[in-house]
Amino acid sequence: MTAPLARQEDALREVVHLGSAQAASILARLLGDVGVLVEVPRVVEVTRPQLGWLLGGRDVPVLAASFALEGDVPGTLWWVLPMDSAERLGQRLLRRPGVSGPLASSRTAALAEAANIVASACCSSMGAMLKAKMLPSTPRVVPTTVEALIADTSPTPETAILAGFVSTNAPTFSGTLVVLLAPSVAADVLKRLGV
């Protein structure tokens, strides 16, 4: 597949927007008193090194939950939180806003569970729209840098759909949900959508 045309980008954007909106809704319910807004996703053909710049730069410390997408639409799903946002979200999940210091194991566990819920909601919604089975693998949640996350320096481009999100209540947190698809898988998604 060559770079997507405008209407193909719109179709890919819509699939991920529905998935990320469902994930944001579930996350807001999980947190109880927090609204979570989702940006309109960006669709780009990029190599992994180029993707690093879209995630804020290669040296940015992040907490990343990485999932393999299994089933009819194979790919990769990342839930990427800048480290300060991950700490604030972890505190909210544990209902301990005063706790500070490095990301503790209890916060990491809470964030891993939240990541699993977010990914499952996203995949369920996208799968329903595509009439496809989509399941996230068990998450790998690690404090890392964007450079380590993207690790692959292959010049092979992928279709990346990035949906940013931000909470509406203080203390705020933000991050990005990233869906990565090989060109052949993106073409199959478009075929499923009739585009």
The end-to-end span amounts to 13 Å
State the CATH architecture.
3-Layer(aba) Sandwich
What would the CATH topology be? Chemotaxis protein chec
Please count the helical segments.
6
Descriptive overview:
Strands 1, 2, 3, 4, 5, 6, 7 and 8 form an eight-stranded antiparallel β-sheet that branches. Strand 7 (158-167) and strand 8 (174-181) form a beta hairpin. The model has no long low-confidence stretch (mean pLDDT 89). With 195 residues, the chain is of the alpha+beta class. The protein has helices spanning 6-31, 48-54, 83-94, 105-130, 146-150, 183-192; strands at 36-38, 42-46, 61-71, 75-82, 134-136, 140-145, 158-167, 174-181.
Short description:
This protein has helices at residues 6-31, 48-54, 83-94, 105-130, 146-150, 183-192, and strands at 36-38, 42-46, 61-71, 75-82, 134-136, 140-145, 158-167, 174-181. With 195 residues, the protein is of the alpha+beta class. Helix 1 crosses helix 4 and helix 3 crosses helix 4 (105-130).
List the helices and strands and how they pair.
Blueprint: H1 6-31, E1 36-38, E2 42-46, H2 48-54, E3 61-71, E4 75-82, H3 83-94, H4 105-130, E5 134-136, E6 140-145, H5 146-150, E7 158-167, E8 174-181, H6 183-192
Antiparallel strand pairs: 1-7, 2-7, 3-4, 3-5, 3-6, 4-8, 7-8
Give a quick set of tags describing it.
195 residues, alpha+beta, Chemotaxis protein chec, eight-stranded antiparallel beta sheet, 44% helix, globular
